[in-house]
Sequence to fold (87 residues):
Amino acid sequence: MLGVRLDEQLESRLNALADKTQRSKSFLAKEALIRYIEEEECKQRENELTMARWEEYQETGETVSNDAMMDWLVSWGADQEKPCPVK
Fold:
């Protein structure tokens, strides 16, 4: 069980939305928390992936050249789309 204190403005907005949607304030708060937590978890996973890639680069120094990447991107949507460049 969780209790959350809302300021007057936020509680007023929540009440108005609950009335308009014919949903309970608890339902709306739970949905908001679910979405927020999912978004934050996704950001955390992306940060971890970014750090892993950075560490790999620091260890190996391997990269894809800008020219190779741009050549691939320019081919997107063309009849002869080029394969993604690799290190």
